[in-house]
Amino acid sequence: MEGNSTGSIILTGNAPMMQMVDNFIAFIREANELLQKELDLSPANQSVTNIISHLSKQLRSHYLPEEVQAVLSNEYIRMNQLKLQDKLSEAEFLVELSDSYHICKSEDFVLDIVTRLPNWNIYMALVSQELSTFRRFIRQESQTEKSPIVFVGSGPMPLSPIILHLLGDMEVICLEMDSVAYDASSSLLEHMGLETKVTVVMENGSAFDYSSYNRIFVASLVRNKRAVLEQISCTSPDPLVAIRTAEGMRQIMYEAIDESQLNKQGWRILGRTCPEDNLVINSTLFLDRFNAPSILD
């Protein structure tokens, strides 16, 4: 369902508000039911690719608060949101895996191929914004610009860690608990000649020892974010964490962090990035511990 130039599903044409909301919910239902019944969620399935592309485009638009509330509070959406996110995550994983395998087989200059990927500009915009914000919060007395970053949940195509290295000239240690993603990403980084700068460790982020690290990124597709944050809190002496979340209508695609729980867990929100309309879906929260020295002092 297409909206007007602002992305509004309420102001399209002269249709009543609830009719337009109902149309959008019907489209989400259609997408969910297709993804639930399809056995093949890989990019080879054009029906899956098309409907995810259309949903992604819709979610990148701007929506009014009342539109978001009407859609997210719908009973079908509430009952099926996690199942839909699971299928979207699986499809995204398979796209990344396919791209990673393809690049490893190529004889061409690898970085050129990577930068031509459809999602490259999206990740560049996201990571550039994150890195710019992240640098504002680096504690100069305890962290240097070049100290390593741990990236939790890097997947089979670790674009974010690669861009963090390229833009920040820093070492990135990727944590990946899926063996297929671990093998694919390790092969890719070796093929790119980055294996000494961007390394992959097969480890669950909720079990890793962060005692030697205090700069940590957590990917949007990491499902056990609360457990990861607890482990970081227990093992890292002075952590600065960038954790991806979703706001507004974008919560249809990606899990949102319950910000009300962060305070109870001892985390303080230092700042956030905002998604870019028509490009970036995720936003990112920047956290430190309440008992840490103030970064802004």
Helix content: 40-55%
Mean pLDDT: 89
The counted number of beta strands is 7
CATH superfamily of the largest domain: Vaccinia Virus protein VP39
What is the number of independent domains?
2
Assigned CATH architecture of the largest domain: 3-Layer(aba) Sandwich
CATH class of the largest domain: Alpha Beta
Strand content: 5-15%
How can the largest sheet be summarized? Answer: 7 strands, mixed
Our Rg estimate from Cα atoms comes to 20 Å
Brief account:
The chain is α/β, with parallel strands linked by helices and 297 residues long. The chain is 46% helix and 13% strand.
Topology (elements, then pairings):
Elements: H1 17-37, H2 46-59, H3 65-72, H4 75-105, H5 110-115, H6 120-136, E1 149-152, H7 159-168, E2 172-176, H8 179-192, E3 198-202, E4 215-218, H9 225-235, E5 240-245, H10 259-264, E6 267-273, E7 283-289
Parallel strand pairs: 1-2, 1-4, 2-3, 4-5
Antiparallel strand pairs: 5-7, 6-7
Explain what this protein looks like in three dimensions.
The protein has 2 domains: 17-105; 111-289, 3-Layer(aba) Sandwich (Rossmann fold). It is built from 10 helices and 7 strands. The protein has helices at residues 17-37, 46-59, 65-72, 75-105, 110-115, 120-136, 159-168, 179-192, 225-235, 259-264; strands spanning 149-152, 172-176, 198-202, 215-218, 240-245, 267-273, 283-289. Strands 3-2-1-4-5-7-6 form a 7-stranded mixed sheet, with helices on both faces. Helix 4 packs across helix 8. The longest helix is centred in the first third of the chain and has 31 residues, at 75-105. Residues 1-14 and 293-297 have low confidence and may be disordered.
